[in-house]
């Protein structure tokens, strides 16, 4: 047992503390990424080709995947894998369509003659970064491409590392990508942000990636939109005495195998469950095929926190704002309503993160490192703009112009004052 988590010394205790802090110095990454972005912006395809050879060991005459190559990748796909992929695509599409149905255009008349509203406008061209990773993550293109197609984006451009598994090309194709490019890393973000001879410039870039991809998204943000800045994956479980240590340990390790920097944790009010879960994690690691990665993640970033009561458990969970938050309590639905900060919430023991990661329909691109305190994850709304408009009848001008004239005068903005007054004065003139 060690000291309590920072700021929670009176209500919480570590049963298992993390050995390291997930936040690391990214200075070297930032400098290298800045050079890549500058070179791609200045040199276009030539720089992309050079960095692809340097970082991915890929010598490519052309970057875009041709229709014939797309079809070949599709033909090579195992029939069951294709069926499973299409099952996931259908679920993600249905959920995105239902979400889009809640985003409605607006027209109101708050005072006579004053008409205000907004339109829901799809972003014209979006870029989907599809990470390669150590495994072919077939769910990755589904989560970034399908919502864009549902939203009505005119073009969805996908980039994936040139050494990514060919099944990933099939996944991009089935998800509806209009164009697919074999470009990875920071050079892919640069190509989509600035445009090259081969790659069209996009308006917004979606999708997770490694530290270099994340830093590249941070640096290009402004003229180009981004979905979010995502760190290593996270999973926390909040549980009371009803929790099952075997299930909890299994779910923690299911995320821990993603990356050696994955953050995993249990927040509980029950000491027996906390200690049993630590033992169960160690037991399951003995036979887990991905234990080399998962064990390092658990050792460095795993934590088990014992809370004095339910209120402390809720407070600590909201402080962590975990990317994935599972609720294993006697009344999971009632408890879930008390939680405010998370990327996505998994209510009850049946709701494992793996189902959302793969195929239930909610998006797995979620906020990490505390960002759940102020934002949710990627969704169909990320692919549209809510743009306002207004128009005024003469009777509305008569109502809004006088206070606008006075306010402009008090602010010393004569141009504003005249622009408001000229319309008001014309109302007084005979027709």
TrEMBL record:
Superkingdom of origin: Bacteria
Residues forming the catalytic site: 323-324
Binding site for Zn(2+): 255, 258, 357, 416
Cofactor descriptive note: Binds 1 zinc ion per subunit.
Gene3D superfamilies from the UniProt entry: 1.20.5.1300, Nitrogenase molybdenum iron protein domain (3.40.50.1980)
Binding site for NAD(+): 129, 187, 210
Example GO molecular function: histidinol dehydrogenase activity
SUPFAM superfamilies: ALDH-like (SSF53720)
GO cellular component: cytosol
The keyword Signal is annotated on this UniProt entry: no
Family: Belongs to the histidinol dehydrogenase family.
Protein name: Histidinol dehydrogenase
Natural source organism: Novosphingobium resinovorum
Source organism phylogeny: Bacteria, Pseudomonadati, Pseudomonadota, Alphaproteobacteria, Sphingomonadales
């Amino acid at each position: 047992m060690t000291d309590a988590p920072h700021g929670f010394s009176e209500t919480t205790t570590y049963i298992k503390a993390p050995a390291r802090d997930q936040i690391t110095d990214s200075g070297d990454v930032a400098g290298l990424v800045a050079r890549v972005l500058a070179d791609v912006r200045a040199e276009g395809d030539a720089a992309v080709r050079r960095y692809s050879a340097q970082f991915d060991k890929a010598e490519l005459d052309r970057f875009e995947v041709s229709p014939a190559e797309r079809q070949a990748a599709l033909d090579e796909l195992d029939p069951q894998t294709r069926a499973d992929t299409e099952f996931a695509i259908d679920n993600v599409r249905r959920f995105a369509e239902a979400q889009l149905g809640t985003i409605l255009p607006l027209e109101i008349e708050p005072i006579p003659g004053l008409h205000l509203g907004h339109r829901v406008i799809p972003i014209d061209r979006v870029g989907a970064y599809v990470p390669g990773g150590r495994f072919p993550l077939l769910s990755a293109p589904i989560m970034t491409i399908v919502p864009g197609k549902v939203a009505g984006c005119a073009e969805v451009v996908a980039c994936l590392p040139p050494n990514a598994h060919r099944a990933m090309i099939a996944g991009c194709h089935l998800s509806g990508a209009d164009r697919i490019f074999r470009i990875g890393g920071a050079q892919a973000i640069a190509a989509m942000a600035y445009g090259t001879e081969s790659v069209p410039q996009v308006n917004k870039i979606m999708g997770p990636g490694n530290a270099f991809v994340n830093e590249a998204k941070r640096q290009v943000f402004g003229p180009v939109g981004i979905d979010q800045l995502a760190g290593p994956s996270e999973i926390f479980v909040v549980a009371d005495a009803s929790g099952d240590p075997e299930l909890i340990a299994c779910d923690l390790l299911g995320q821990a195998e993603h990356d050696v920097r994955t953050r995993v944790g249990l927040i509980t009010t029950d000491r027996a469950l906390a200690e049993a879960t630590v033992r169960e994690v160690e037991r399951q690691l003995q036979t887990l095929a991905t234990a080399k990665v998962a064990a390092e993640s658990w050792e460095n970033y795993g934590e088990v926190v014992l809370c004095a009561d339910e209120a402390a458990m809720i407070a600590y969970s909201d402080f962590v704002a975990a990317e994935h938050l599972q609720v294993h309590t006697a009344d999971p639905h009632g408890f879930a309503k008390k939680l405010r900060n998370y990327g996505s919430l998994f209510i009850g023991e049946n709701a494992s993160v793996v189902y959302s990661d793969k195929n239930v329909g909610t998006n797995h691109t979620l906020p990490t490192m505390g960002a759940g305190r102020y934002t949710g994850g990627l969704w169909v709304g990320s692919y549209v703009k809510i743009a306002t408009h207004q128009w005024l009848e003469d009777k509305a001008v008569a109502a809004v112009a006088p206070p606008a004239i006075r306010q402009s005068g008090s602010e010393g903005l004569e141009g504003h004052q005249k622009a408001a007054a000229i319309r008001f004065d014309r109302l007084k003139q005979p027709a």
